[in-house]
Amino acid sequence: MYFVDRVEAGRRLAARLKPLAGGDVVVLGLPRGGVPVAAEVAKALDAPLDVIVVRKLGVPFQPELGMGAIGEGGVRVVNEAVMRSTRTTGEELAQVEERERAELDRRARRYRGGRTRVEISGRTAVVVDDGIATGSTARAACLIARRQGAARVVLAVPVAPSGWSGGLADVADELVALSTPEAFFGIGQFYEDFAQTTDAEVVACLDEAPAGARDGEASGTAPRGATRPGGSPPVADPEVVVDAGGVRLGGQLALPEGAAGIVLFAHGSGSSRHSPRNRFVASALNRAGLATLLFDLLTEEEEEYDRANVFDTGLLARRLTDATAWLLDQEECRGLTIGYFGASTGAAAALWAAAEPDSPVRAVVSRGGRPDLAGPRLPTVTAPTLLIVGGNDDVVIDLNRQAQARLRCENRLTVVPGATHLFEEPGALEEVANLATQWFTGHLLHAPHQAS
After folding, report:
1. pLDDT averaged over the chain?
2. pTM of the model
3. Of 128, 203, 321, 366, which one's alpha carbon is 20 to 30 angstroms from that of 183?
4. Dihedrals phi, psi of 247, to nearest 5 degrees
């Protein structure tokens, strides 16, 4: 069994866990890769979502060997047998714990911001990761959840090696894995997109969880309908079917109250509307009062039977143009000013579509994009265009400079220092979101509305 990405894996895992819906359940994602998976499970179960932050206590002279683990709330689990065999003293244990406790607290603050940890005492804790390799982290998480008072612990993952349950049956009441292949060499082997999850994406998953699903009553966080940190209300992004010139494409449409503009996202090759990086940027735009539409540029059949379609800039641009026409025909979207956000090859499609003579697009942003693939269309783009590239993405920087030289519209090339192509470095994706928000709010919210 293979998964497109962690979001798709989470949805399939959620279907298996559906019998838990309606119970007193808390979903706990293991940072970082387990959190996007857990977010989909929590959404399907309408359950509170939180992270379970654990740190291994490594033997001082052999840190890869765990002698215990710690969790929030002062919880500690110690393997006395390992301490005896390695002759680790109580003082040495205390020193390791102090160091790891500081790192645990730092990560918890980073992920949650001002939110309070969800209380799990007396409840069913569903511990979720993106897969099991050795099982050491999952084992520690289950032990920590139990020590924090969980009445029942369920460990759930999309993929694990054959025979995985033998080493974990003593720490969880139920073990769930969608796939347990014999030929298992690593978790990433079973994902098409297994890019590293960033801290920013973890924060976005927690931030996007509905207020009620963050368990305000039990944990002291805001109740359903309360505002997010920063003052903006949570924005739902229901699934929609986009009619793009007769082709039906899956999408997610988020409409903040009073939105005056909307940004359509064009994903890169091999990605989809579930792109965690695009979702992170979309969430930032929603908080700024902009609506967003993330949608698939191709059907599953089109990708599967002709891989060349993912690089067909003209085809992808037509899909974007047709989706724009469909969007503006929806009653709740009529009159909204339009922006395009393109990632990787999707940036070329966005610029190609924006170059159409009757294009309604008022602003374009490219993230790590390939605007050069829009070639001869670039001089005819009239929408103000922002090109964002990573400072360590040398080849793409050069391609963007060449493309910028061909643009005749208002434009800017911004380099994010130290960032690579996927902006996985700490703070890099947040900078992309900030830059995009400033560009779109400046060019969409103050632009005249489209004719209804």
Report:
1. 86
2. 0.58
3. 128
4. -100, 130
The answer to whether position 233 is within a domain reads: no
Neighbours of 102 (CB within 10 A): 11
Phi, psi of 140 (to 5 degrees): -60, -40
DSSP per residue, 263-321? EEEE--TT--TT-HHHHHHHHHHHHTT-EEEEE-SS-HHHHHH-GGGGG-HHHHHHHHH
Given this model, what pLDDT does residue 307 score? 64
- Residue-wise pLDDT for 186-238, tens only, equals 888 999 888 888 888 898 888 887 654 545 433 333 333 333 334 444 455 56
**For tokens 């579930």, what's the residue?**
274
232 in a domain, yes or no?
Answer: no
- Looking up residue 17, the CATH number of its domain turns out to be 3.40.50.2020
Helix, strand or coil, per DSSP, at residue 391: coil
- Asked whether residue 432 falls in the same domain as residue 371, the answer is yes
What is the sign, positive or negative, of the torsion defined by CA atoms of 441, 443, 448, 452? Answer: negative
The 10s digit of each residue's pLDDT in 149-163 is: 898 999 999 999 998
CA–CA distances in Å: residue 371 to residues 96, 282, 346, 434, 437? 50, 21, 9, 21, 20
Taking alpha carbons only, the member of 238, 204, 264, 234 closest to residue 444 is 264
**Domain-ending residue, one of 169, 189, 219:** 219
The pLDDT value given to residue 61 = 84
- The reported pLDDT for the residue numbered 232 is 47
Residue 288, domain member (yes or no): yes
> The CATH number of the domain where 279 resides is what?
3.40.50.1820
Q: Are residues 279 and 385 in the same domain?
A: yes
